[in-house]
Amino acid sequence: MTNIPRRRSGRKNQPQEERDTLLMVVLTFFNFGSGATTILGAMQILPIYLAWTVGGAVQLMLFLLQAGLTAKRTPLRKWLAIIILASASVYTSFFTYYGELAQETNEKRAMDRAIQAHNRLVSEVYTPMEDSLRDLQREAERLRAIAEAEKERGIDSGFVGYGEEARKRDKLALEKEIKAENFQKTVNELRPLFEYNLENLKPQDILQKDGEALSSAPQEFRNNYPELKRGDYIDEGAEISLLAPYLKVKNQEEAALIALLIAVGVDGMAIMLGTSIVTKLVPPEERRSPVAIVANSIASSIREVRTSFAKVNNAGRESFLAEDEDLQAAVELVTLNVKGKGSNFLNNFYHAISEVEPHIINYSALTQKYRTDENMHNPIRVFIDKLREPRRAWVVRNTNNTEWVVPPEHYHQLVNWLQKEIKRQKSSEAEIGEEIDFGFGFSELQETPVQFKIPVNPNSN
To answer: Distance between CA atoms of 195 and 187, rounded to whole angstroms?
Structure first.
């Protein structure tokens, strides 16, 4: 019997994977620690059940991705997910580390803020009430002394005894004494509302008590305090828990910077270790030297640059004046540096023209669309100047020289051209979009040159 040789597979040996078990065990404990800080931090901005669910899911998914246990065939999406999940872990862990580092200092600072605001309220509302009471009491004592002197010695009328003048003085003194006595009752009732023990109270409690005290004070003593400002008692920036890391780091608080450094270090270390858990073993016949890898990368870059240069070169060969089939007239190619698509630029201009006479161009509304980028005002003005050239005269200034308007005799010429040019721009944009899938030439972040075909002599017929 002859041996029939087995047919060897023509496929190349598939790369095998090797998993570092010891590193995986270490990373497991590392993730337990990171997960604990993530969940504790999430508790400060989420309900407990959500903090455990979301925080635990984030850390578990992060571990599975790092250990190479899932998303093996989608490396790009895998690492994008790792970056997003690690950022969430760092952000929530910040709360835990920052709370441990700065909790005592923040509590003391918050209490000092509330006490300072309380003392200011007392000095500007309650203290003037006490001063007013003392003034009333002194005035009552003075009037009583004058009444007694009039009665005993007749210092004003010259008659001793309880005469007309003595009765008058006695009545004035009595009214002032009654007023002082009534006001003293008010001050005594308000004293415990203003002068209370601040120990074992939180800033929120002090704010509530001061609010009750202020509402109970007489209107004439509340002129400086129409209402209490919450920010005087409570650090409102710290209350916005979701923005706390950003606000604290922006203010360059030492504890916040250290907390952020620790959080980034811990999760960054976990990611760095995670990249070493799984190693691909490439067969010798498929290995390439570093020189070959670099050479291949350079060659790919050169091909991309050559392709781009060819497209630019072809565009540059277009004649300055060309024959446009739709307009049946010579056209001028006007290149403007705009952000976004040329069709959108023309659409904005089209809708800025009033439909009824006078056909005013709402220049302010047109520039308002680009309020965040003043550089876009330049192409708008250049475009208007092109339309108002004498050979076109599609745009002119009104009689008061205050606004741009489209003359009635040229309105339909202009809008018809705009509609055709918008259609042409959209067609060109669709063709470019098919050739280059990442949207070259349509960037909303940077200016790109866009060509418009404007008739040279539209009024010659």
So the answer is: 11
